[in-house]
Amino acid sequence: MTSLALFSLLYFAVSVLTLTDSSLSSITTAASPAASKCTLLNRFQPDFVVQGNYVIGGIFPIHFSLKLRDLNGTYRPPPINCNAHKLNPRVFRWAQTMRLAVEEINQNPVLLPNQTLGYRIFDSCAHPLTGKRAVLSMLNGVSEENSSMCTNASSILAVIGATGSAESIVVSRILQTFRIPMISYASSCACLSDRQKYPTFFRVIPSDDYQVKAIAQLLVHLNWTWVGLLRGDHDYGRFAAKGLLRELQDTKVCVAYQEIIPLLYTRKMGLRIMKVMRSSTAKVVVVFLGDLLMTPFMRDYMTQNITGIQWVASEALVMSSVLSGKEYYPYMGGTIGFGIRKGHIPTLGDFLQTVNPKRYPDNVLVHELWESLYGCSPLPSSVTQMPPCSGQESLLEQHSAYMNTSSPSITYNVYKAVYAIAHSLHKLLLCQPGRGPFQNNSCAQSNNIHPWQLQHYLQEVNFQIGDEEVDFDAKGDSVPYYDIINWQRGKEGNIEFVNVGLFNGTKAVGEELLIQEDRIMWAGHQSEVPVSVCSASCLPGSRKAVRRGEPICCFDCVPCDSGKISNQTNSVDCATCPEDFWSNKDRTACISKKVEYLTFDSLGIALTVMSVVGACFTLAVCGVFFCYRHTAIVRVNNSELSFFILFALTLCFLCCLLFIGKPTYWSCMLRHTAFSITFSLCISCILGKTLVVLAAFTATRPGHNIMKWLGPKQQRTIISSCTLVQVVICAAWLIDSPPFPSRNTQYEHSKIILECSVGSSLAFWCVLGYIGLQACLCFVLAFLARKLPGNFNEAKFITFSMLIFCAVWLAFIPAYISSPGNYTDAVESFAILTSSFGLLFCLFAPKSYIILLKPEKNTKQHLMGKEKK
């Protein structure tokens, strides 16, 4: 239960005991229990009364200022009075609309034939306390003679009212005790939909649950993600703000601040709220206030010269004529909000023209209306200080607060409420005995209808009025329709309320809002939608990163990581590109990864040239040796082994070409196997030559005949055997786990590197290890023979060639492991070429030099070191 409701009930209890400030009926029990009499200790007369067969009540805040005194309990409280100089012409029109509707119904031969409706209309002064007084006076009756509260059913069948939700809460709690239904025309608080707390409450205005849903959709539709919230310190403001926050939970809209304007407004409090508004980056402010609280706030607001705020008004404020003056336009122009759907009442304008002091000379409210509209009084000058007038002045268009019948939203609600009661009562009276809805299928007695019986029919009422269908749901709420209202500058500089859209709660979710943005004039007289965000939108290629400790609407824009993209504004996360794709430079799209392998580009061409040049050099040396095959230097170095070595070196140079180009299944298998077998053949030949050299010089010693074991046939056997071991290893490798082309996406994620996977790492390193073993054995044997006699000791050159060979391949191992991508193939190719050139030049350059440039040394005597000095 709210504090206001508790206070009202407490006040009601005190009033019952004191019987001072309201027209309560006191039950004074005499000595005999049978003797009881209802006595009115104070009278609170209605402002308009018409008798009828069935009477309904009306509560309107005709005055919007209340004279409250300090009730400190030291004296008898005086009556609570409304401020006579604060009559609201707009609300007075509402009261006249109720009178008009009753007159139309009484003259209608179809609706409630032979029956008449009466009414009692009271002024609530826009305050719960006087609202309570009004409803209690309404229940008591005008006098003791007419009051039947002590003995019979209530003379009031239903009540039209009240305006504010706080007033309706108080009034409804009193009426539910007597089971009297009430229909509110302006109370929209969602709290009133609770049938457990307010079982007799109905309304023809949509619940704030729909209003906050509409406001939330508007904020989302206009991309206002950072808004302020200003509400009144009452149930309407509390429940509306709570409902809006609930609706915004699943959206991208955040509330920057929530400020409360107290019921007892002070300038100090207002300035503090304005300071918050000025310092905030939120340029849109949602308002859940009525003009009663907004007016003093706006007076201080205008003195601070704060502009640029886009107001979003609830239905309690959006149609307020109090704030429609031209002085408000620079500060509130462009306001947009949801107003109660308009309706047309054809006879209203003419009826309002008939209300004047001449026709109602005794009605105080009509006199006050004239004072408010014309600034004169039809009463004698001795009674008032205002200048006199006839009371027959014509009501003109400038009296829009009273005469505005073009958009009577609340007025139309009052009209619908009266007709809802009339249709319910009509259906009740048509009930046929034995087919009724009450106990034993009974009907209500037409001469003694109880309000709770009328409520049953009111719950089920359904009728057409104009082009609108009127009915109530199980909670007493009506169909939710709102007009979207925009505050625009009129011809005379004042504010005009322009309809720019519609919210239809009966539509499917997401289709309720219909708005014409091209017709809207925004704050600051701008035609473009204002921007209200905590952080600027993140462009495609970046994502939102929420700041720690701040709302989700406040974020930083973080560029997407490599390999991820975002192609939408304000992406929450970046999407990872598929395996064969990579992000472009702007991180907005996935593009195919660049495919890399050792191609015939600059590096590939260089290796190709080196390979071809090496093969050509080898063939050239082979040609020289072939031409000079009968000379001593060729014959003494075993020409057959020399040609084998040159053949193997040619293949070594040419096998580098297998490493260049797009890897295929066959090229991958040929790369390593061809390289390993040709090098093994080459090293086997060099090993045979080393053994021959070592054996040749050893055979010159007495008792040694080792050369017979190293003849040409044996040399071929050694070469074939050593090469065959490598062939067997390669064959096992190809059978078990052969090399194959693979796509390496791990080393550099932005590229696809096509390479040859070795398949079996063990086999690969066995191949290299076997070649290394051959080279080491060759190196050891050549090293042992380096000091043998002779001017041309080939063992020295074999030693140097093996030394270079081993150095190259020892350096190859770490370079191969650490080389990125296609450079792995380049490193292996370079190692093959380098070691091949080392073998070619170390083994054959000295011989070619002698053959071509020093032919005089190409003799057996010189080579054996036996030439004469």
From TrEMBL:
- Keyword Methyltransferase, does the record have it? no
| Transmembrane segments annotated in the record for this chain | 603-628, 640-661, 673-697, 718-735, 762-785, 797-817, 829-852
Gene Ontology cellular-component terms listed? plasma membrane
Similarity annotation: Belongs to the G-protein coupled receptor 3 family.
Q: Where in the cell is it found?
A: Cell membrane
Q: How does it sit in the membrane?
A: Multi-pass membrane protein
* GO molecular function (one): G protein-coupled receptor activity
Q: Which key words are in the record? A: Cell membrane, G-protein coupled receptor, Glycoprotein, Membrane, Receptor, Signal, Transducer, Transmembrane, Transmembrane helix
Keyword hit for Transmembrane: yes
**Protein name, per record:** Extracellular calcium-sensing receptor-like
* Start and end residues of each G-protein coupled receptors family 3 profile domain: 603-867
Q: Tell me the organism.
A: Solea senegalensis
Signal peptide segment: 1-18
